[in-house]
Give the backbone structure.
Amino acid sequence: MQPVPKTRAASATVTFVKLALIVSALAFASADARAHSRSGPPEPGIPIPSLTHGQMAVMARYRRETVDLASRQTKTDPTFRRLLNYGNIQYTYCLWGLVPGSIRDEESPFNECSHAYLAATKAVLAYMQGMPSARDAANDLVSRIDADMVRTGASWVLCQYSGEPFSTGGIVVPRWREVPFHAPSLVAFLTALCVPIGGLVTVFRRRAAPSGPSG
């Protein structure tokens, strides 16, 4: 019997772990009793202004650069850390922006939580404009984002969550019950499920296959 190539087995294992993380996030988020409600005011905490649907797409392109700048700051305060932590938590709840249509599709079950983590990203960047160690880099980043938003007319593209306020005291979870009825999200989860299963089947088939003649 020929040994299973380590790279293929490792790849299948990594994919399976990713799926397990997604399933765990689903279960954890569904059980969270502190979920933000669209019908009521945000929970007590640091208020975070919302952003328009058009601004989301622009902020998404600059999120990594904003987070990298924030992570390099050594002199911080509780407000900064809470804003940054909230944005990171929201990003995880929203499955790291991996579900197709999370940002651009208003009907996506992940659109509201995308509003939340991108609004937090914008709030962190705005806060860094007042931090001596980050001010210059933050102002430069804000200028580039503003120019990008003007070019795309981002401020004028609204959706049902564009005026919704957020707060570090209230986590926004995806609308899990709507996933089966939103085709792009459903396809993404089915694909995530099929890929590791297919990988494991391939591994087991290779292990079970009879070895060729030894010569």
